[in-house]
């Protein structure tokens, strides 16, 4: 919501997941559609344009926001609090904005996400080197922006595409997102290194601001979407109380998934900078790891079958834990790059199965499709609970010690949460795979 290992773009995961999850693509539990060469509509092209502009803007600057704050105050604790506040704000925004998207104007929610993202970079420019003093405010604004945009985008994406063109939409979204994730951070690193660093940062933040504003302009060409039904505020609580529903197990898995994201989402890119002191090397890191991840997502997305989800996810989970182990010998650019390449290769085996199974549940029957907004909110709330827990654990550890060994142990413990995710999902995969076969 960012660079390489910092955050694998949701559209990469969703694109590959959609290949093995026809339930979410179908209409209220209908049979899987035959392949179609149906072209994208004008509205879906406009949504892709907004998506691409936001991807470029975030990729240009998102990678370097934490580095910018670190350079102003070299304190992991500040960055931990910034991340925690970001995730809390995002979770609250998803839950509160669900009513806006379900019952009112989801297009305005999408625009609000883009506008608030622009405000975030405008404030970073305005505060300058004092931005680190306002990390709490910046965390709230960035989390709010992400909540508005991704909630509305996921729902509008469902509505402006259909079973005949959704794969094509996801293909273009993946191409735009991956191109931005590989090239934009490298350009940013080049500009920062070859200009006075303060000027370089101001330039990339300014470009991001302009691109976000352009995205707002384009969004006004998207038609207002019809609102249907009433928002169920406590659907998440109701699901967790029902012993017979798969959502209890899935929610636990999503929480475990979020634990890793809450820390690794900012820590790896920051470690690359801390151990190199060079933004250009961070750009190179992003270029290489994003390219490896793109190739792996494309390959796994094409080859993975529903009945292989459980085994594939276990292999992916184990491997992305093992690539943390070399940090105990030495943390430098080489071991970080090996980590990034390893995660890029194996992360799709871990992420695609859980994404596929969750979307199977959302689109598995007519009742779930009617409540798609609530289930998307439930998914994001569970992920953010995990991210919040991971961030809190990080804050506790770094407030007690700055020992490199303690940091490595923390990364290994948090980085092992994918095994827990697999444990909760192992039976859900079997059930959803059986549903897809039938």
Topology:
Layout: H1 10-19, H2 22-25, H3 42-72, H4 76-103, H5 106-127, H6 135-160, H7 166-194, H8 197-219, H9 235-241, H10 247-276, H11 279-303, H12 309-322, H13 333-362, H14 366-370, H15 372-400, H16 404-415, H17 417-437
Helix pairs in contact: 1-7, 1-11, 1-13, 3-6, 3-7, 3-8, 3-10, 4-6, 4-15, 5-6, 5-8, 7-8, 7-11, 10-11, 10-13, 10-15, 10-17, 11-13, 12-13, 12-17, 13-17, 15-16
Describe the structure.
With 438 residues, this protein is mostly helical. It folds into 2 domains: 41-223, Growth Hormone, Chain: A (Up-down Bundle), CATH 1.20.1250; 237-438, Up-down Bundle (Growth Hormone, Chain: A). 79% of the residues lie in helices and 0% in strands. It has helices at residues 10-19, 22-25, 42-72, 76-103, 106-127, 135-160, 166-194, 197-219, 235-241, 247-276, 279-303, 309-322, 333-362, 366-370, 372-400, 404-415, 417-437. α7 packs antiparallel against α11. The longest helix is centred in the N-terminal third of the chain and has 31 residues, at 42-72. 55% of the residues are buried. One of its GO terms (cellular component) is plasma membrane. Keywords: Membrane, Transmembrane, Transmembrane helix. It is a multi-pass membrane protein.
């Amino acid at each position: 919501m960012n660079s390489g290992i910092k955050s694998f773009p949701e559209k990469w995961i969703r694109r590959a997941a959609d290949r093995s999850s026809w339930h979410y693509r179908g209409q209220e539990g209908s049979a899987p559609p035959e392949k179609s060469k149906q072209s994208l509509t004008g509205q879906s092209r406009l949504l892709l344009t907004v998506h691409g502009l936001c991807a470029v803007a975030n990729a240009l600057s998102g990678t370097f926001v934490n580095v910018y704050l670190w350079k102003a105050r070299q304190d992991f604790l500040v960055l931990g609090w910034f991340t925690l506040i970001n995730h809390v704000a995002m979770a609250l925004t998803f839950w509160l904005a669900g009513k806006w998207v379900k019952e009112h104007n989801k297009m305005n929610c999408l625009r609000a996400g883009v506008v608030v993202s622009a405000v975030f970079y405008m404030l970073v420019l305005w505060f300058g080197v004092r931005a680190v003093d306002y990390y709490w405010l910046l965390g709230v604004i960035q989390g709010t922006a992400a909540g508005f945009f991704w909630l509305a985008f996921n729902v509008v994406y469902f509505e402006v595409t259909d079973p005949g063109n959704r794969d094509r939409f996801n293909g273009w979204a993946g191409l735009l997102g991956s191109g931005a994730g590989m090239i934009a951070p490298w350009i940013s690193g080049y500009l920062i290194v070859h200009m006075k660093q303060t000027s370089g940062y101001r330039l990339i933040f300014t470009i991001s601001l302009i691109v976000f504003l352009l995205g707002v302009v384009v969004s006004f060409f998207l038609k207002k979407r019809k609102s249907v039904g009433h928002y169920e505020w406590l659907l998440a609580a109701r699901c967790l109380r029902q012993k017979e529903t798969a959502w209890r197990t899935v929610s636990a898995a999503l929480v475990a998934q979020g634990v890793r994201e809450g820390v690794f989402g900012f820590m790896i890119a920051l470690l690359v900078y801390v151990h190199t002191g060079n933004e250009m090397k961070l750009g190179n890191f992003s270029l290489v790891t994003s390219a490896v991840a793109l190739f792996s997502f494309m390959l796994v997305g094409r080859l993975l079958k529903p009945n292989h989800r459980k085994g594939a996810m276990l292999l992916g989970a184990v491997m992305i834990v093992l690539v943390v182990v070399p940090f105990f010998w030495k943390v430098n650019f080489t071991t970080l790059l090996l980590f990034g390449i390893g995660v890029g290769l194996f992360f799709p085996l871990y992420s695609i199965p859980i994404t596929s199974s969750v979307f199977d549940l959302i689109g598995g029957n007519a009742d779930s499709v009617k409540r798609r907004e609530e289930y998307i909110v439930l998914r994001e709330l569970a992920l953010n609970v995990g991210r919040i827990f991971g961030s809190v654990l990080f804050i506790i550890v770094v407030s007690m010690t700055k020992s490199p060994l303690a940091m490595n142990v923390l990364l290994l413990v948090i980085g092992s949460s994918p095994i827990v995710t697999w444990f909760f999902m192992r039976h859900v995969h079997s059930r959803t795979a059986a549903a897809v076969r039938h």
